[in-house]
């Protein structure tokens, strides 16, 4: 892909210049977790392959290589001909119909694909319109399952510190209770139970390795917690092996395997939130594969449509579905207006076809190698606490908070788009990134951290 490489002259970049679009945006639009009068956004005027076309001060556009995949989603890059075609073809048939009482080929076909791709034993699919809603549906289903078994007291959830599961109220309740939004809405968020973050794991020779004593202690804490509170709990919910927006923490797969075992022992369901990790991102098709487990409920989203449209899915086992079907309620009590949107389903099917045909494993392994090499120099910087890589995810963790506008600008001047948060500068490039793209991303991140934080 063509883009401004790390060694091309610095591009003229504006954080809040005369771009008329940025001026119209200001004070009108909320951006994610940002005040209305927060730092000015950059205007995107196009995107192609792994490049974003952004506006420069003089009104011309310049290209930056996308290191974020639009938050994990654009795995095949922008304007992919196969995805564009799938979208247009479905628009030529019908763009949307209600899913109550009606069905259509895009939904059925995508559900069949998901059941085939996900770990064996996940046989039923609920389509939601965002990841947060898929998590809501998963939590609701777990409660309905326990109710169906005659256990109405089992309404709480066990989650992990450092977790992130979305922004709606039930999802917020299972996000990290300190870094999440619990403090802002104390009376509105149900009190759930939390275990510490599982011990860190690092890649060595293709395996995730961690301190066995720490793992054993964590599993002990899990067993104690569930033994004490099991009869109030409906399910355990985790992001498998990689916690994303809660801190980009990579943890020991043994802890995930233990959660599976303990859930079975105590009649809890295991909900695995693969919204960020699914579809190859961690070097396995699903991060659950790192522990060789099959959850009772799995949520997927983000990369599902290749970044084209908002769509998520909740999958569950036949055992769970049967209990609900045989209960007095019979139905899963959820049904969004835009459930199983045909445009989104059609693009998702095309995206999964591409994924399977594209040799994603080779792409992700190549990115993993490129990020490991490209980010390594950051280890020498005084501000850097740690550099870690898993699959097509690279993380540079600082000791202190990132100066987000300054680091973003410095990286853009190297031709790389990143969006740091807290003390983390991270990248999850599109799977179609070339070796040169990945090298530029590594160099851009190292240069930006060095320039701003030393
Ligand atoms: C992004 C994310 C969500 C929420 O998905 P939205 O589509 O933003 O609602 C939930 N869980 C995980 C792990 C995520 O990364």
From TrEMBL:
Any one Pfam family here would be Aminotran_3
Q: Where in the cell is it found?
A: Cytoplasm
Show the catalytic activity: (8S)-8-amino-7-oxononanoate + S-adenosyl-L-methionine = S-adenosyl-4-methylsulfanyl-2-oxobutanoate + (7R,8S)-7,8-diammoniononanoate
EC code(s) of this entry: 2.6.1.62
Q: Which pathway features in its UniProt record?
A: Cofactor biosynthesis; biotin biosynthesis; 7,8-diaminononanoate from 8-amino-7-oxononanoate (SAM route): step 1/1
Question: Carries keyword S-adenosyl-L-methionine?
Answer: yes
Q: What is this protein for, i.e. what is its function?
A: Catalyzes the transfer of the alpha-amino group from S-adenosyl-L-methionine (SAM) to 7-keto-8-aminopelargonic acid (KAPA) to form 7,8-diaminopelargonic acid (DAPA). It is the only aminotransferase known to utilize SAM as an amino donor.
Q: Which family does it belong to?
A: Belongs to the class-III pyridoxal-phosphate-dependent aminotransferase family. BioA subfamily.
Record's protein name: Adenosylmethionine-8-amino-7-oxononanoate aminotransferase
Instruction: Give the species.
Output: Arthrobacter alpinus
Organism lineage reads as: Bacteria, Bacillati, Actinomycetota, Actinomycetes, Micrococcales
Q: Which gene encodes it?
A: bioA
